[in-house]
Design a protein that fits this description.
This protein has about 130 residues and is of the alpha/beta class. It has helices at about 15-25, 45, 75-90, 110-125, and strands spanning about 5-10, 30-35, 70-75, 95-100.
Length: about 130
């Protein structure tokens, strides 16, 4: 079974920030994929190339989001700590919407995950 860590990156519009993140992930031997709006309805399992997952047959007619988002797969806790420390040490603004792939979320589309993470983020930061 392939347990190489992987990362999906969404909507990173700052080229320097994206370059730094990709360079870090590459040095850590993390397979990285930039996900674009036309792919937002595919199941995350398909985007991570997990056997048995297929692309969505729906066309994306406006189910988009512009927030930065990161989805990680097969990261150990030490790898996760290192990734978060990399952001702090390099003064890279934190990405509010990030998640680890789970048996449940692998069936979700990027839009579904984005909406759930946005709801959770809003609830956690209410004053």
């Amino acid at each position: 079974m392939n347990t190489q860590p992987e990362a999906l990156l969404y909507n990173f519009n700052d080229p320097e920030q994206l370059r730094q993140i990709r360079r870090y992930l590459n040095r850590q031997k993390v397979k990285t994929r930039i996900v674009t709006a036309p792919e937002f309805l595919h199941p995350l399992g398909y985007l991570f190339e997990i056997p048995g997952f297929h692309p969505s047959s729906q066309f994306n007619l406006g189910s988009n989001f512009s927030d930065e988002m990161i989805v990680l797969k097969d990261f150990s806790s030490a790898q996760m700590d290192g990734f978060l420390a990399f952001f702090r040490e390099n003064q890279i603004p934190p990405v509010a919407l990030k998640a680890m792939l789970t048996p449940v979320t692998q069936h979700w589309s990027s839009v579904q995950l984005h909406d759930e993470l946005s709801r959770e983020h809003t609830l956690m930061h209410k004053k």
